[in-house]
Description:
Chain A is mainly α. Chain A has 20 helices and 3 strands.
Amino acid sequence: MMKAYDDLLTRYADIRKLGLAGSILMWDQNTYMPPGAVEMRGEQQALIAGIAHERLTSNRMGELIRECSSMKDMSPEQASIVREIERQYRRASAIPERIVKELSGLEPVATQRWVQARKMSDFSIFRDSLEKMLSLKREVAELIGYDDIPYDALLDEYEPYMKSRMVREIFGNLRERLIPIVRSISDAVEPGDESARGDFPIPKQESFFRMILERMGYDFNRGRIDVTAHPFTSGSMDDVRVTLRYDENDIRPGLFGTIHEGGHALYEQGFLKEHYYTPLAEPISLGIHESQSRLWENLIGRSVGFWKAFFPLLQEAFPVMKNRNLEDFHGAINIVRPSPIRVEADEVTYSMHIMVRFEIETELMDGKLDVDDIPQVWNEKYEKYLGLELRNDSEGCLQDIHWAMGAVGYFPTYALGNLYSAQFYDRALESIDGMEESISRGEFSSILGWLRENIHQKGKLHTAEELVEKVTGHPLTEDHFISYLKRKYSSIYGITL
Amino acid sequence: MMKAYDDLLTRYADIRKLGLAGSILMWDQNTYMPPGAVEMRGEQQALIAGIAHERLTSNRMGELIRECSSMKDMSPEQASIVREIERQYRRASAIPERIVKELSGLEPVATQRWVQARKMSDFSIFRDSLEKMLSLKREVAELIGYDDIPYDALLDEYEPYMKSRMVREIFGNLRERLIPIVRSISDAVEPGDESARGDFPIPKQESFFRMILERMGYDFNRGRIDVTAHPFTSGSMDDVRVTLRYDENDIRPGLFGTIHEGGHALYEQGFLKEHYYTPLAEPISLGIHESQSRLWENLIGRSVGFWKAFFPLLQEAFPVMKNRNLEDFHGAINIVRPSPIRVEADEVTYSMHIMVRFEIETELMDGKLDVDDIPQVWNEKYEKYLGLELRNDSEGCLQDIHWAMGAVGYFPTYALGNLYSAQFYDRALESIDGMEESISRGEFSSILGWLRENIHQKGKLHTAEELVEKVTGHPLTEDHFISYLKRKYSSIYGITL
C-alpha cells in the first residue's frame, strides 16, 4: 500500500514541477519576454499544461488514488495529501478534452474582445464572447457537479470546499454592517492626500521597498523584485518572485503594492522543505492567500504603528517628505471614498465591489440573469451599494479581465481575504506578547513566526474552514473585520462608528 | 503515408517546444533566477528534458520514422526533415536510461570537482571524476557506433556527419600554415592596446552595443540583451536572447562579445516562419553556428572598414576616445600574442588551442592516453604549438568546463567555425557588389541578406559539408582563413606573411 502512496507522490511531484516551470515562464512573459515571442510562449505553455493535465488525469493516477484512499492508519498529513490530489484529479477528469480546448481557444479571443470593448466602452463588442464563455462555464459546472447551485462548482476551483450559500450569508451580514460605516465616513471630512504625493524618484522607491520586504522577512535568496504594469507574485517554495509598479508622483501604489505582494510571497516562501511538491506545500485557497497579502498591506502596512517605525526612514529616503508629519501621511494612506474601479478601491468599500460581482455571477450561472442585462444590473447595484452613478461600461462591467479569462467564481476570494485577514490578525494579537509594539519598532519576526507556524507551514493540511476554526477558535465571521474598520476609521476620521 | 509524416512533424514540434522552454529556463537560470532556486530549477530541467527524451525515443516515433523513410517522391525539404529526426532518434535511442542517469548524476559532481581543482590548480581533485566521465563517454561512443574511431560518435553530436579523419587532416594543414604566421607576428612590433582602454561607463557601453546590434539587423522585437558573467545566446526563432559582460576599463570584451553573440543570434532569428519547429528551423551544427558569430566578430567587426563607420560614433559616445585615432584602435583590437587561456586567445592563435584539445581528446577516447598523463601532455603541446611554458594546471588542462559537463567532441567546432567563416566571407564578397563599401558605411543589409538566403533560411536542409560545397563551390579548406590572416596581419603589423 505504501508503494502506491510513494508512486502517487512521485507522480504528483512531477505534475507540480511542470506547474512551477510554467509559473516561471509566465513570470518571464510578464517581465522580460520580447513581445514577438508571445505566440511561441503560448504554445510552450499550452504544451506543458497539457502534459500536466494528461498526467493528472491518467488511468494510473486514478488507480493509485483509489488504492491510497482505502489505506488504513494514515497520518493526518497523508490523509490530506491523498484528499487534495483526489480533489484535483476529480475536477480535472470531469472536463473532457473538447471543453478544455474550447476554453483555451476562447480565452485569447474573449480577452481581445474585452480589451477592445473596454477601450471603446462598448459592451456589445464583448457580449458574444462572454455569452459563449458563460455557457462553457455552466457546462463545466454541470460536469463537475454541485449540491446546491452551479456556481458552487466554479467557486470551488478558487476557494476549495467553500459554498455559495456560506458566501451569500456572510456577504449579507457584511453588507448590512458596511453600509452605515461607508455612509458615516462619506459624511465626514476626508483627509488630504498631499502628504503621499510629490517627487518620489524610482531608484529611491526601489531601494525603500526592498528594505521593507527585507524587514518583513522576505528571502531575497529565494526571490526577486521586478517591474510590471500589473503587480503579481509568482512561483513557490525556493523561487518566489514579486513584481511592482511605481508612480513617480505618488508613493502609495508602489508602496502598498510591495507590501501586498510581499504578503503573498511570504506565504509561498513559508512552506516546509520536507513538504515540497506535495499539497502540504501549497496554499489552501485564494481567499487564504489574499488574507496574507491584506493582513500585511492593510492591518499592518496601513497602521499607525507600522509608520512609527518607517515614517522617519521614509523622510530620510525622500526629501519631499521632510516637513510632513506622520498623522497626515497616515490619513493619506487611509482615504475612504466610494469609487467605480475595484482595483483602486480602499479596504472599506472594496468588499462592496465584490458583492456586486458575486450576485451577478451567481445569477448568470443560475440562468436568472441574461448577458444583455449585465450593464444595467451592474450600474443599478453600484448605485445601490456605493451610491455611484457610473458614466460608462468601461468604468462599469467592463473593468475586470476575469470573465474574459474564464475566471468565474474568483471574485469572492478577494473579499473573503479581507475577512480572514482581520480574524487571523485578532488571534495573533491575543497570542503574541507585545505584537503591535514590535510592529512599531519595525520588527516582524513574531507576527511572521506566528503566520508561519499557524498558516504557511500547514499548506493544504486543513481546509480553509478547518484552519480558521483551528487557529481562531470559531468559524469565519465578519465581526473582526468590522471591528477593525470601526476602531481604525473612528480614530482617523474623528467620528463614532 | 502523408498522415505518418504529419504525425511525425506534430510529435517533433512538441519535442522542440519542450527544448525551447528549457532554453528560456536556462537563460533565466543564468540571468535573473534567485540563487536559492538552483535545486528546484535542476529538477524542472531534468523533468522537461526527460519528457522530451521519452517522446523522442518512443516506439511510435520509431514506427513513424520508418514509415516516412520509405516515402516516395519526397521533396528535398521533406527528406532532410525525416533524415534529421531519424538522426536524433537514433542517437537518443542508442543510449539506455542507465547511462543517461549516470551522466546526469555525474555532471554536477564533476563540475564541482573541476571548480575546486581549477581553484587549487590541483588536477588530482578532478582526476577521478574525469576518468569516470571519459569512461562513460567511451561507452556512449560504442553504443552509438562509428566507422573509424570512437571519437567520431562524439564529434557527431556537435558537428553532425563530420569525421575525425577530416578534422585531423584539415587541422594538420592549418597547423603547418599557422606556425610561421604566428612566429612572424611574434617577432614583429606589437600594437599598443591603450586606445581601447580607459573609462567606458557601463550605461554608455550598453546603448552603444545596442545600437551596433540594431545596425547588424538583430530584431529586438524577438530578442533582448542582459548581463552575465559568461556571455551566451539562447532561444531560437521568435525568442533569441543575447547576454553580455562589460569591462568598465576596456571596451573590447563587451564590444566583441556583443558582435560575436549578435552573429549567433542572427542565425537563430533567421529561420523561416514556415519551417518553425522542424529541423529546417535549426542550426546545422555548432561549427556553422560559430562561423556566423566569428564572421561578424572577426571578419567584419575587427576590420578597418567596420570602424570607418563606427569609430566616429565610438568617439562621440566615449569622451576618452576623443584624441585617439582609428589606426591605433584597429591595432588594439587585433593584437596577436600566444597566451595560455583559450577564451582570451586572438583569432590567429585560437585554433592552436583547439588542436591541443582535439589531439588529447581523440587519444583519450582511443585509450592511447591515460588520464594521469593529461597535464604533462597538455603542457608539452602548448610549448610545442604556442611556445608557452605554462605555470600551472589552472591555466593549463583545467581551464575549460567542457569535460566536466561531458562535452567531449565539442572543441573542434570552434576552430571549424573560423575556417567556415572565412570561406563564407570570401564567397559573399564575390557575390555581393560593393559589400565592403557597404560595411564601411555601417550598412549590413546586403551581407545579412546573403547569409539569410544562403545559410540561415536553409536550417538543416543540407549537412555542413553539402552547404559549404553548395555555397562556396568547393569543400572546406583552410585556404580562405589563412589568406584572410595573411592579408590582414601583414597590413597591421607591417610585415610580409
